[in-house]
Amino acid sequence: MITLYLHGRLRTTRADLEAFLVRARPVYEEPGGIRTRLQWALDDPAAFVEIMEYADRATYDADQVRVEQDPTMRALLAEWRTHLDGPPRVVAYAEADLPPDASVTGDR
Hints:
- The chain has 3 helices and 4 strands.
- By secondary structure, it is an alpha+beta fold.
């Protein structure tokens, strides 16, 4: 799994951003293998992170092409940026493939 974290601060309101994401989520997730979430910072009401979870690297790579080339995605991202007070901080992570931990099986 690849997880993309988009950290931002609001220029608009929480309600405005949430309404936008309700409209945008079906387009974001439309290719399949993509899940979108939103989290609010507990200590700063203007800070949030939008989380995009991709099933695998191929899905992530295909979506990056879509973000760069698809007019609908480009328009949505331009609209998304109107909600931000400054540029977002974007970080992508790949899931570690850790072996199961035998100590978690309940044999303690």
